[in-house]
Fold these 2 entries.
Entry 1:
Amino acid sequence: MHVTIRLFAGLAEVMGSSSLAFHFHESPLTAGRLKELLSASYPEAAPQIKVSLVAIDHEYAPDDSVISEASEVALIPPVSGGEPASEEQATPDGRFSITDQPLNGEALLDKVLDANHGASLLFVGTTREMTGAQRTTALHYEAYTPMALAKLEEIGKEVEERWNARCAIAHRTGLVALKEASVIIAVSAAHRDSCYEASRYAIEKLKASVPVWKKDISDSGEQWLGADPKAKDYGSL
């Protein structure tokens, strides 16, 4: 069986490619077995493969998930919130987007305002310069765009179901300079308490589950964040 696997961020750098064509002789092939076979074939990338998740058709896949030749397969390194977006890609309603252009908070907030909502919040995550003694000069973001958009939509639906709130999210890709916004989340709700809770939930869920990666660029070099659980979250929100 022939499978093409998409690779991102630090894993793509180690493997030297953003995609990998691989032939397997096992059937059925599961997500867990895929990682085992890839680790054996590419020992230099085994540590990164071990901590990565498999995605099948834009959904995270448990180890026992079966892969077919028709599946779109990706290895997802730990997210730190890749293909860089060359233009804005958004959901049909425009409330969730991935773009390499500067983000517009006022326009995003306008997408969630509701005559029956008395509270609205705009969360803006920007590149900061200092994290302890570490100085960041810029951040570089990559996203697995189709899956990232789907996960952002899921967050929006969860926010609506749990808090009866409206949510819109825009995430930047490419180079993001100091003080520039990398992510903006707009939320509106009937009351301020639920609005605060929904906004906090959205950013925490985004950082944990949306396939977006960031590379810290500093005077001492460059480092993909998220792959090393002991590494500090330099330059982040």
Note: The first strand starts at residue 2 and ends at 6.
Entry 2:
Amino acid sequence: MRFRLTPRETSFYDMFAASADNIVTGSKLLMELLGAEPSARAEIAERMRAAEHAGDDATHAIFHQLNSSFITPFDREDIYALASSLDDIMDFMEEAVDLVVLYQVEELPKGVEQQIEVLARAAALTAEAMPHLRTMDNLTEYWIEVNRLENQADQIHRKLLATLFNGKYDAIEVLKLKQIVDVLEEAADAFEHVANTVETIAVKES
């Protein structure tokens, strides 16, 4: 590992950790949405929107620090990629909740809870991993597990699509529900992008 002495650069680690912690908040709101009555969903969406704004603020803070730092803890393009991918996760989760409310979905199809459980697990793993960027230790299991979870999410997504197209739902409802499950799948993909970026950073720093 390369040796660096720059006190200021440590703020990046704290900001990445804060961004990941905010994603955990978002995943909990997704879980809350599952058990909520339709009448309670708008309030959950408001809290998710606030969390997404907090995520935007965290991302902008990282970009500002990146633009004002002469020396960074690892490559600038990797800092940008990691911050952007973390931001994407929150964007997709917020979009999914917003669509449920906007489309006035009465009941989500069976299998969405599995999608959200995978996202919650990936969020917890990501939050646990971010502090390890300081030392680059104990990260291998993180990206292996997140990649495994993304594969699991793919399988769940395919089963959900099969359910949506089995004739149970009318065409308009299929369009609504498909967009929601597709966005949740994009969130799972974004978790994998974060894990792949962390792996790239760790390989470069080794």
Note: The radius of gyration is 18 Å.
